[in-house]
Amino acid sequence: MDKGDLRSLVLDVLRKTPQTHFRAIENDVRRLSEAYEKRDVLLLNEVLWEMLLQGLLAPGKNSLNPDLPFVHVTVYGAQCLDGGAVVAHDPDRYVERLIEQTGVEEGSPLVGAVETALRSFLDHRFPAALILLARAAEQALHDLVDALIRRGRRDGHGIKRLQASTQDAMKLGPTARRSLAGYNLPDGLAEDVLGHIDGLTALIEATRTRRRRPRIPSADRDGTLARFLLFLDQCRVAYDAIRWLEGESSG
Q: How far apart are CA 76 and CA 86, in angstroms?
């Protein structure tokens, strides 16, 4: 089986049975998927150990069974499962949602930066994950500014300020914001786009000094996780704006 498919099945099992053990999980996965084969047990063990290292699971089921192979969903794991935050612990699913919501290609710079950021997050390298996610935010804003430049050329509007912003990541968001304010955006998009642009800009600012030099941010698990969860909607709205700019007729 594919590792991503196995991970999704395990998460489904844990939602129903938060106190269990390795072999019981295997039995449940086998019942859920006809594609599961005996040889997949090693890959399943990899998935379970990754969840242990990520803090979704911890050893032990109860006072009588406090050690491995018995496991239980941690408080953090339960919050992720109940609140949808577990998507960041399922990188394949996260990337699938990103591609579906933005329409970008699988091998695009945006997706590449997000995939690397997710790997860093799952390895508990939170500052590195934040830096890489900020790089993805920069790419999203670059794409938005490029769309604004193309639209400006099409409509005969001045684009010098937009072009200048592409040389300074800190200016991308504010410049895009000002430019979009001059368009008659649909109500739903107009309500969301400015706030989400500010969110992408804040992500970039978290990894830069006042002099715009790169810096290593302070970052913990919960704060970095929140950034990943917000990023999906921030990107969705940015690329909705790009599609509107490219599809809306002049005038």
A: 10
Residue 73 sits at φ, ψ, to 5 deg, of -75, 130
Mean pLDDT check: name the lowest of 75-84, 96-105, 151-160: 75-84
Domain boundary among 57, 83, 109: 83
Alpha helix (H) residue ranges in the chain: 3-16, 22-32, 41-54, 75-83, 91-102, 109-122, 126-155, 160-165, 169-180, 187-205, 221-247
Rounded to two decimals, the pTM is 0.81
Q: Are residues 29 and 55 in the same domain?
A: yes
**Confidence class for position 117, pLDDT limits 50, 70, 90:** very high
What is the percentage of the chain residues whose pLDDT exceeds 90?
Answer: 73
Range of the domain at 234: 88-247
Same domain, 94 and 75: no
C-beta separation of 110 from 136 below 8 A: yes
Non-local CB neighbours of 4 within 8 Å, separated by 6+ positions = 90, 91, 92, 93
Q: What is the mean pLDDT of residues 117-143?
A: 96
Instruction: Please say which residue of 83, 114, 137 terminates a domain.
Output: 83
